[in-house]
Write a structure and sequence with these properties.
This protein is mainly α and 180 residues long. It contains seven helices and no strands.
Amino acid sequence: GQELWEKALALREKGEVEAALIQAGSAAEELTGGGMKVDSLRGELDRFSRARENYFKALELGTLAASLWRDGDAEGALAKLREAQALHAQPRTEKNIAELEELLKRQKEARTTAAAVAREADQLAGGGKLREALGKYDESLRLYSDPAVRTARASVEGRLGALDRKAAAAEAQRRIALNL
């Protein structure tokens, strides 16, 4: 029984909670059948139960994190994965945490670059270089989809369209005048 108990403890330490719990149950049966009092095992059995609860709570948090990640909430997913890892450490969870941290880092860099390009587009638009500004807005939006940049781009596109219509009307008037 003692050997089974040691194996159960080792499994629990490795994070193999389900196998550890089964082993602990078998070990407890053998030990108590051999005359050991259940009360002397109660503390360890309680720790096994808490480890099992933490394991299932971590699985639940991992599932929630995956859902958040799929829905585009990488920061929320990262928080849930960290919570899961604190309850029950797993190499796969640690890997997912590292991936999300890297993703968030790249997204932050993309937002920073996109903001700089959008400021450049704003300056071009302010200087009347509307076609160049549209190109910069498009570049910014490829880096990071920002609703404010989309709005600024639409405004410049509207101004450019109005100018094109005005130029077309002026050209039509010029042609009419030349034909008279």
